[in-house]
Write a structure and sequence with these properties.
Layout (H helix, E strand, L loop, with lengths): L16 H25 L4 H12 L5 H8 L3 H13 L3 E5 L8 E5 L1 H23 L3 H18 L4
Antiparallel strand pairs: 1-2
Amino acid sequence: MPVAQRRTADPDTGHDPLHVANRLRPVLLRLSRQLRRETHAAGLTGGQASLLAAIHGHPDFGVNALAAHEGMTAASISGHIDRLEAAGLVERVRSDEGDRRRVGLRVTRAGVRALEDVRRRRTAWLARRLERLDAADLARVDAALAALEAVSEVVS
């Protein structure tokens, strides 16, 4: 696979990836920090919300698969799962078929409600900020989303 070369400033616009990155990074950090606050207001940590979303989005995950997905060790994930389970947000479920030693993870109804509350809070906070923009700025933010999604794609 060819190695991507660093793109330099666009000769037509003068946009330089390093310059844009230096401006974008603190904006994303501020947004992330505030969205984390909204998560805490819902009674969860950012890590707990992330794990709940991963388990909810991958119902076939066990501890090892979740650990691999999150880039953590199975021992570390187990501790987090123990706390989520004690809070009634996640349950461990033995497989009904095949290997009965396999234990899957499932988000409980309370966990789904907590996850929905976090998403609702985060979306409401962001929508309130976007409402402050004039129509042209809102359109620019909307137009930038596809490019930002491409930037956020994880490529190994």
